[in-house]
Design brief:
InterPro entries: DUF3572. The protein has 6 helices and no strands. By secondary structure, the chain is mainly α. It has one domain.
Length: about 90
């Protein structure tokens, strides 16, 4: 199993190759494309990346299919990165 951070970075890398989804993610988060690399070091930002993917099952499944990542790894990453303040999210 990948670490939560590795899964989040994999999601971000996948989004970078999906222009429509990346544009939606950037619009929803207010993140500038130029700050993605810097933001990727922030656990809160990574939690948002995973949350974005978890918010739309077809996108989650597309990511998992494209990268060979199990949905359980994404759920695990979401639980770890979101912390105990979001117990109802998984």
């Amino acid at each position: 199993m990948k670490s939560a951070e590795e899964t989040a970075i994999a999601i971000l890398g996948w989004l970078a190759n999906e222009p429509d989804l990346l544009g939606r993610f950037l619009a929803l988060t207010g993140t500038e494309i130029s700050s993605l690399r810097h933001s990727a070091a922030d656990p809160g930002f990574l939690a948002g990346v995973v949350d974005f993917l978890m918010g739309h099952e077809p996108t989650l499944l597309a990511f998992c299919d494209a990268t060979g990542t199990s949905p359980q790894d994404v759920v695990y990453a979401h639980a770890v990165l979101s912390g105990p303040d979001n117990p109802g999210d998984f």
